[in-house]
């Protein structure tokens, strides 16, 4: 989506009709309750407060004012422009509900795996690889990240771009920045990054759609990642990972290279033994803290080609047929830089393998890559 150039200079204000309640006046849930309570308590005078309450949005809070001032002083924004954006932002209860229950924390591995390893997701991933073959090959050559790993990330994040979120990014980030105290610092920073990113790319900040946490596009980049890692991979002058799969493919690959993906190195392997749940060899940190030799000494048998001093971390997972033990390596850790969860990284790894296998099969069937 390439927005018209004047978006960031015209300072377009509140769109009429965006707020549905009270005949065009807007009230957040808390403000509404407060009005109702006052009316219930017979304070007729409260009715006179309606017009001013109606305008009381994030831009009128002290936090909102501090945010506006920061954007002006640090980044040279026009105060009126930031103010009108905060006035336009809507508090969404559904966003506050959603942030409290991420799937990684409530599902067992075999349940999580089932979501991402469905036949349909594998088949559509192969189609995605074929459809954008040129971009994948170029990304692999330029960044050293296998095509199927890039495709698996996009497959896990958004089902190859089919589900990129349904919230306005402005609403998501403002709601979490100003109404979610546990992470308000982080989301205020992301809101600032969002305004910077949309200014840089020429997008309208009122228009972009993303996840409940403000993640955008095929690879679900948050605003700071967008600014750091998104690339204009089709060279049309804008890094658009929201609507342009070629830019998204290059951007995911760039993210992995920036987080030190090692081309040709292994990701993870399953070993036959299973360590007890309380084994000291099951380290807590996602970053591999032990070595292949430590696990060899404990009687596990990693691939013979693995160097003794290669960093490794054993992960015990609740598989459908009982506990599984995996040795994970540096590149597995790199996948967790995308989403800090070993279930997530394992899903990406296994989906990438499935895509690689399936793509290989269909190439053989179609005679691609054969010598005849
Ligand atoms: Ca582009």
- Amount of beta strand: 5-15%
Into which percent range does the helicity of residues fall?
A: 40-55%
Strand order of the largest sheet: 3-6-5-4
Order of helices and strands: HHHHHHHHHHEHHEHHEEHEEHH
Which segments are poorly predicted (pLDDT under 50) over 5 or more consecutive residues? 1-6, 9-56
Q: What is the average per-residue confidence, as pLDDT, rounded to a whole number?
A: 86
Query: Helical element count?
Result: 17
Molecular shape = globular
Bound molecules: calcium ion
Taking all Cα atoms into account, the compactness measure Rg is 24 Å
Query: How does the major sheet shape up?
Result: 4 strands, antiparallel
Secondary structure category: alpha+beta
| Assembly category | single chain
Distance N to C terminus: 43 Å
Strand and helix map with partners:
Elements: H1 7-10, H2 29-40, H3 50-54, H4 62-75, H5 79-88, H6 93-99, H7 109-116, H8 119-131, H9 133-143, H10 147-158, E1 167-168, H11 169-179, H12 184-201, E2 209-210, H13 223-229, H14 245-258, E3 268-271, E4 290-291, H15 292-297, E5 311-319, E6 322-328, H16 330-336, H17 342-366
Antiparallel strand pairs: 1-2, 3-6, 4-5, 5-6
Bound molecules: calcium ion.
């Amino acid at each position: 989506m390439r927005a018209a150039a004047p978006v960031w200079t015209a300072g377009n204000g509140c769109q009429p009709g965006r707020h549905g309640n009270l005949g065009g006046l807007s009230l957040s849930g808390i403000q509404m309750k407060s009005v109702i309570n006052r009316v219930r308590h017979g304070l007729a005078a409260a009715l006179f407060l309606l017009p001013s309450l109606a305008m009381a949005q994030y831009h009128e809070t002290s936090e909102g004012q501090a945010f506006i001032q920061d954007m002006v002083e640090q980044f040279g924004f026009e105060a009126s422009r930031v103010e009108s954006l905060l006035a336009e932002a809507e508090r969404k209860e559904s966003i506050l509900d959603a942030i409290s229950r991420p799937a990684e924390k409530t599902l067992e591995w075999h349940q999580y795996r089932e979501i991402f390893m469905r036949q349909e997701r594998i088949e559509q991933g192969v189609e995605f690889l074929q459809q954008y073959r040129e971009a994948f090959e170029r990304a692999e050559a330029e960044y050293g990240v296998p095509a199927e790993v890039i495709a698996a990330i996009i497959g896990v994040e958004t089902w190859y771009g089919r589900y990129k979120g349904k919230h306005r990014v402005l609403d998501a980030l403002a709601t979490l920045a100003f109404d979610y105290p546990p992470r308000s610092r982080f989301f205020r920073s992301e809101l600032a990054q969002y305004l910077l990113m949309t200014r840089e790319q020429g997008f309208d900040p009122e228009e972009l759609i993303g996840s409940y946490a403000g993640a955008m596009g095929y690879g679900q980049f948050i605003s700071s990642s967008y600014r750091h890692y998104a690339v204009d991979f089709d060279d049309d002058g804008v890094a658009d990972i929201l609507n342009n799969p070629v830019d998204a493919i290059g951007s995911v690959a760039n993210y992995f290279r920036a987080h030190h993906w090692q081309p040709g190195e292994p990701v993870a392997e399953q070993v036959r033994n299973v360590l007890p749940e309380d084994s000291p060899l099951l380290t807590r940190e996602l970053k591999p803290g032990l070595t292949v030799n430590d696990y060899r000494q404990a009687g596990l048998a990693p691939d013979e080609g693995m160097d003794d001093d290669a960093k490794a971390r054993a992960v015990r997972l609740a598989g459908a047929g009982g506990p599984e033990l995996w040795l994970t390596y540096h590149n597995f850790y790199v996948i967790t830089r995308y989403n800090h969860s070993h279930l997530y990284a394992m899903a990406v790894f296994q989906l990438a393998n499935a895509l690689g296998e399936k793509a290989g099969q269909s190439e053989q069937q179609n005679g691609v890559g054969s010598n005849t």
